[in-house]
Structures are given as structure tokens and as C-alpha cells.
Amino acid sequence: MSSAAATVSSSAKLAVKPLKISSLSSRSALPSVISLPFNSRGRDIPRKRLILVTCTAGDGAKPTVLVAEKLGEAGVKLLESFANVDCSYNLTPEELNTKISLCDALIVRSGTKVGREVFESSRGRLKVVGRAGVGIDNVDLSAATEFGCLVVNAPTSNTIAAAEHGIALLAAMARNVAQSDASVKAGEWKRNKYVGVSLVGKTLAVMGFGKVGSEVARRAKGLGMRVIAHDPYTPADRAHAVGVDLVTFDEALGTADFISLHMPLTPATSKMLNDETFAKMKKGVRIVNVARGGVIDEDALVRALDSGIVAQAALDVFTKEPPAKDSKLVQHERVTVTPHLGASTIEAQEGVAIEIAQAVVGALNGELASTAVNAPMVPAEVLAELKPYVVLAEQLGRLAVQLVAGGSGVKNVKVTYASARATDDLDTRLLRAMITKGIIEPISDVYVNLVNADYTAKQRGLRITEERGVLDGSPESPLETITVQLGNVESKFASALSESGEVKVEGRVKDGVPHLTKVGSFEVDVSLEGSIILCRQVDQPGMIGTVGSILGESNVNVSFMSVGRIAPRKQAVMAIGVDEMPSKETLKKIGEIPAVDEFVFLKL
Ligand SMILES: NC(=O)C1=CN([C@@H]2O[C@H](COP(=O)(O)OP(=O)(O)OC[C@H]3O[C@@H](n4cnc5c(N)ncnc54)[C@H](O)[C@@H]3O)[C@@H](O)[C@H]2O)C=CC1
Ligand SMILES: O=C(O)C(=O)COP(=O)(O)O
């Protein structure tokens, strides 16, 4: 007879092994808004509550948003209509770490480093970091993901501003505008010294043909320049549409009279202009950087300027901002500098502020903006369809893990999605995340959501494999059944084991409500609400009444009952949905019914 433990012992071991996910349908990121099943770790919100709608749902209190850098007024107003907004600029790292434990969201620009310590200091309360701009190199994305914190950015509103600044620097550099301006203001009049170079007919290599790069290319063509581009990830026809040829990195370096940098700072792009690559450039090349300082080895640039490989540079961004006052690069007479002004136009800042405020409010409301950078994006219409299956997926994971005997360890999870739809017509990322959540949360202190599900599974050594069963029939609903199987485990309810020895539960959605439809080889039918008692018994008359009256006597409301049997008068599994948790004595009485072979109480 099994014990009536509500959850598997937290000592259940999850061996650390690499995650194996064989998703059968992987959609590319699609712009949309989705409901994000957030799990709050906020101190003011009970830990077990799954926040599907709003983070104020728990106690009615407004969330708190810390705006750590200057944000356009319209964005602040939008935030204020929803949250308590604390605009505190120029915080030291220590002050930020102290404040963050009281904040649900943080909004920054490029001047605030959001490192691991910020997430650690937040102690789980921080649910969203909004980057009011494009580059997210100042945010530790791995730490954010690990802590289940969503990171969103505002990638579209400052594109033109950055492109215009690139062009401004290009022209200013070519005509020595900054240097000659300083000279005139110093009382000089040196017309011969500041003779410039023309742009027309020159070759500009745009490195990084994304939003900003392509706008720079368009404008440079308008100035009569020949534009080539290097971007390993952009399709050639995108460049051709603007009349630009995509070339290799070396070809770009070897051909260009001007080079304009527009790629993000990543480990791959860090210091991509260095001694070796400067050596491949045409002598007298001119370089514009409105991307990130870190893509250039700044010491190497000084050397290239001194040796004459680089005639001039115009820089808006620096490895360290602000750069040291005595920086050789900044002080170099052939270098034009601006203090990271690419996105700083009135128009761009207003747009960015609104874009980020909307994304942050949406996220706090349980939605995931299309600009999420550390979570899969699921289109709104897909999410609407999948909503009941999302609940089903989590409940099945939760049930399956509770059927494992403590100490046997959960490593291998097999999920089968049976559907009449084509195999590429089901986005399983959300479902997989929720199954992971259901499996991990009952046995650990980790909070799992769409952001950190895959990471957490990997950390815990869960190998999740996904399979698609293709059914005949109407493809109206996205899914018929979801089956979750846990391999190489013992079960505290032997009847939950499949013929091949896995703990197996299967469910489906009926009239919008998730149901458990199979346990091991036994068919049952119980809606997944409240909690469930599973009993294996000898199939005989009066069993439903006997169990029902024991529960009734202890004032436990039965919401649902079903019996699945192998054959009449043989073994049967009774599934009983209960609204309240029965006392130990009540469960003991059920276990003592002579015809009951084993039973288990499962909390949803
Ligand atoms: N100075 C400023 O105030 C501003 C700076 N930026 C910087 O500009 C960068 C680009 O912004 P967007 O165009 O909006 O981003 P984006 O994501 O639209 O474009 C980046 C492009 O770089 C390409 N890329 C990635 N790795 C590359 C590599 N190794 N070589 C060549 N290309 C590579 C990508 O394929 C992509 O097409 C941002 O990451 C940000 O750091 C953006 C806005 C304002
Ligand atoms: O959007 C970007 O990537 C930028 O570099 C703009 O930075 P900022 O918001 O002006 O600090």
C-alpha cells in the first residue's frame, strides 16, 4: 500500500546531464505578444502562485518599476499609470543592488551594468529588465535567464537616430568639422590644414547590415557612395533590395575607403577590428563606429592611426564609457568623438521610452512582448489556442513527478504530442516549458517559467525528448493528447507504470478543461482541478460509494470520479477529483478498504 505523501521528497535526485531536446517543430521567432506564465518570487506574493495575468494579483499592490537612466516623459507617464515608478539616476552599483530587491522591473539604457549581482540582490523579485534601446551587452542575459527574469529591449525606435548619427560622423570626419570648429574657437583660421576628402564615388563598407546598417547604406547611396556590406547572417536579397552587395569580411576590409560598424557586441564581434584586421585594410581608410566600443581593439586603432593605415576615425562609443580623460584614442587629433549620442534625438528617445514602457507593462501583466531577448516568442494566436494545453502540460508534469517514488531520481522525460495537424504546425516550446515547470517545482525550490525552463532543465540534468504522434481526423484543435513519461524511475503507485516501465500520464483538453485520461495503462477521466486520489482496486460493485462516503464523512468535496478497468471484476483504477486535501486519517481509511490495492494522493 502506498503512502499518501502529497509530494515527492525534495531529496529526489536529479543527476546533472546535458539536456536533450528534440523539438519536432521549431518556429522561428515571430513578432507577437503572448501571455507569459510568470512565477513570482516576490516576497509580497506567495511563492506557489503562478502569475498568468498580473503581478498585482496577489495583494492588490502596484508593482514597482525602477527607472535607472533618463527615460522620455511619455514612457514614464505610461509606467506611472500602472506602477509605482522610482526614477533614480546615477545609482552606484551598491545602491542599485540595494534598491533592486524592492523592484519588480528595472529600466536602463546603455549606462547601467545589469550584472549577475543585480539578479542575485533582487532575491527573485525582479521579473523584467527593460533596455530602453537596442544593445543589450550591458545586461547579463545568462544570469537573467537563470533567475527567470525576462529581458526586453526597444529595438526599433532609435534606428534612424543611430543611422543619422553615423552619417553625421561620416561627413563630419571627412570634412574635419570637429577639429576645425575647435580651431576656429581657439582663434585660428587654418583653411589649408583642414582640407577634407569627398564622399562621392568612395566605397563604404557597412559592417552589420541590420536595422541601422541598412539605413546607413540607404543614406550613403544618396550621397553618391558605392556601398558594400558584410553581414554573415543577413540574406543577400535584403542587401540587393537596397542596391548593396554583400561581401566577405576580408573583401570589405580590403576594398573600403570608409568602414561603418553596425554589428552588436558579442563574444564573436569583440575586438573584431584588431592589429591583424587593420593590416588587411586599404591604407588611409576611415572608420566610423556607432555600434559598440568593444568591437574595436582601441589600442590597435591608435597604432593603426599612428602608422597611417587608418587616416581618421569617428567614434560615438567606447570600450569603457566614459573613456579615460587622457585616452590616447580620444585625444588623437584625427579622431572625432561624441559621447554615445547615436540614440539621442528627441524623437528617438520619446519612441524608445514608449516602446520600452509598453513592453515592461505588458510583461508585468503576464504578456511577453515581441522584443523579449531571452525567451521564445510564441505568436498571440498560437498562444490563445494553446492556453488550455499549457495548463494541461504543467499539470501532467506535476502529476507525473508526484508518482515517482522518492529517491529514484528523474532524468529522462519523454513527451508525446498527438495531433491531427501537420508536424510543423505545433509550437511545443511553451508546452515543454510548462511540463518542465510541473516536474521541477514540486521537488525543488526553483521557480520555473518560460524564460528559464530549458536552462533549469539542463541544470538539473533533465533530458526532455519530444515526439509527435500524427493522428487521422480533424485538425481543428491543435492537440488531441499530451503524454508525459518519466523513464528509469520507480513509482509509488505501481499502476502508473506503462508496460515498458515508465511512469506514464496522459491528458487531453475537453471543453476547454484539461483532463487526465490515462495513468499507466489504465484509462481514467478526471478534470485537472483541485487534487486527485488514484486508487487501484478490485473492480467490484459499491467501491465508488465506499470511497465517496469516507470522503463525505470528512467533509471533502468530490468534484469528479471515474473508473478505468482492464476487464470487468478485475483490476481497476479509480480517479477521484477532490476540492480539499483529505486528512491523513481519511486517506488511511481509504487505504484500509480491503479491495484497495494501492492509492496515492496527488496535489495539483
Ligand atoms: N550609438 C548608439 O547610440 C546606438 C548604437 N546601436 C548599436 O548598433 C547595433 C546595431 O543595431 P541594429 O542595427 O538596430 O541591430 P540589428 O540587430 O538590426 O543589426 C545587427 C546586425 O549585425 C549583424 N551581425 C552580427 N554579427 C556580425 C558579424 N560578426 N559581422 C557582421 N555583422 C554581424 C547581424 O546579422 C545583424 O544584421 C546595436 O547592437 C547597438 O550596439 C544601436 C542604436 C544606437
Ligand atoms: O540602443 C542602443 O544600443 C544604444 O546604444 C543607445 O544607447 P542609450 O540608450 O542612448 O544609452
TrEMBL record:
Entry GO CC: chloroplast stroma
Pathway(s) annotated for this protein in UniProt: Amino-acid biosynthesis; L-serine biosynthesis; L-serine from 3-phospho-D-glycerate: step 1/3
Pfam families the record matches: 2-Hacid_dh, 2-Hacid_dh_C, ACT, PGDH_inter
KW Oxidoreductase (keyword) present: yes
Keyword Transit peptide applies: yes
EC assignment: 1.1.1.95
Major enzyme class: oxidoreductase
Organism (species): Eutrema salsugineum
CDD domains documented for this protein: ACT_3PGDH-xct, PGDH_4
Catalysis performed (reactions): (2R)-3-phosphoglycerate + NAD(+) = 3-phosphooxypyruvate + NADH + H(+)
Official protein name in the record: D-3-phosphoglycerate dehydrogenase
Assigned protein family: Belongs to the D-isomer specific 2-hydroxyacid dehydrogenase family.
ACT domain ranges (all copies): 532-604
Compartment list: Plastid, Chloroplast
Alphabetical keyword list: Amino-acid biosynthesis, Chloroplast, NAD, Oxidoreductase, Plastid, Serine biosynthesis, Transit peptide
GO process annotations (BP): L-serine biosynthetic process
The organism's place on the tree of life at top rank: Eukaryota
An example molecular function term from Gene Ontology annotations: phosphoglycerate dehydrogenase activity
